[in-house]
Amino acid sequence: MKIKTLLLLLAVCILPGSLCAGVVFSPDTLGAGKLYRDSTYRRVIKEGTANLDCYFSYPQGGWQIQRGYGGNARELERLDKFMRSSFADTLIYVRRITLTGYCSIEGSYAANEKLAHDRANGFRNYLDTEYGLARRFPVEVRYVGEDWDRLRQLVEASTLPGRAEVLAVIDNTDIFKGREKKLMDLQGGVPYNLMLAELFPLLRRVEIRVEYDLHRIIEERYRRKLTDAEFQEILVRERASAEADERRLAELRQLEAEKRQRAEQLRLEEERVVQARRKEEQLRREEAERLKEQRFREQWLAERAAGRQARREARKQRNRLLPLLSVKTNLYTWAGMTPDFDYTAFTPNLSAEFFFARRWSAVASAAYADWDYDNGKCHWGVSAYSLEPRFWVNGDGCYRWCYVGIYGQLGDFDNRSTDSGRIAGGTANCTGTYWEGGLSVGCYILLDAHWGIEAGLRGGYRASDTNAYDVEMPYYYFNRNFRENHFGVTGVNISVSYRFGSRK
């Protein structure tokens, strides 16, 4: 009984395991969402390999990679990104890694082959040091001394002068039978020198090629062994799924890009609105500042004008005098000048002007001279008495600016002259009387309330009764009597005046 019980328990324990071992999980039972769908997996499934060409710079004849030489730092950053993306997932299995070094064609083939060999191995040493590559994956190192195939591709895709001739030389001339020499001689070396500068640097490179073990990767994803037929079927399906995912991601990226574009447009629109508001606000502030400055300037100008007006009014008030009497003297006559603009001797003179009825005044004047001049050779004797009523144009009672008047004047004279013209006319020595009358016009300028300057002219008729005589010193002999009549300027007035009056 005990034995049967033990056998039954053993069968119960073994049977479920046997049943479970016979169960095959369909890929569909895992669910597409459980499959690994990141970018590395999709790239591996679609391409099966990963390649990167690194264009390192080396010193002349050098083969070791130096980060600080030329543009190597930039190329090493590209290499680091490639290594991280290619080996980031522990479930991505690598079948083989191939490192290939290439050289350009200039120089001897043996030297280029050795240099390509050394640079490929130098590249492997760098990868082993930085990433421990050879310890983790199988690594194969290859080298190509002169990469003519790549050069032909570059020439064919270029606009090189003589491109057809260059391709003919590459296709029809053996490497060891002067191919490079023919290229150097072609068209005077112009195509060769252009290739040397632009295309040969693209030949000097090291390539890393990673081949993935897709069979093992898919088996790990499905967690069972697969026949070749199952692998191929699943690979096709996985590649289709990866491409579908790529399309969906492309659509999502497109939608995201459109979303970002719309967001950027909204941001730019908001920024434009904000800038427009700021500009409008700035314009308002500038307009307000301009108006403020304008008001300030207008106020300043108004205050300045008011100040000037106030000063003028104060000055006017200070200078405002209602004159009753003015005493003045004619500087022109004092200077010895005559109305005919002749020079004789000075003539003292004095005038008094009486003001009445706000616009009217009357001037009484007297002048007298009786002395020799020009070292006693000439004599000037004259007396003049005049009366001149005036009408002032400005009727404010201050008697300033313009006036017109009529005048009358009489007097006598006793002159002796050495002027040749007067001697020839027989009037060098004469005595007599005269009278004149006419119009006067002038202007009075206030200097202050009392002092002022007057300038004016007299014009009209003058009549004289003259006795001419001859001189034989010490005797004077009567020669003749004659009368003269004259129309024209009869007086010049440049006077200094002092007025008496009231400030009311």
Automatic annotation (TrEMBL):
* Species: Bacteroides stercoris
As recorded in UniProt, coiled-coil segments are: 235-286
* Name of protein: DUF3575 domain-containing protein
The beginning of the lineage is: Bacteria, Pseudomonadati, Bacteroidota, Bacteroidia, Bacteroidales
Q: Which residues form the signal peptide?
A: 1-21
Record keywords: Coiled coil, Signal
Q: Which InterPro entries would you find in this protein's record?
A: DUF3575, OmpA-like_sf
- A Pfam match: DUF3575
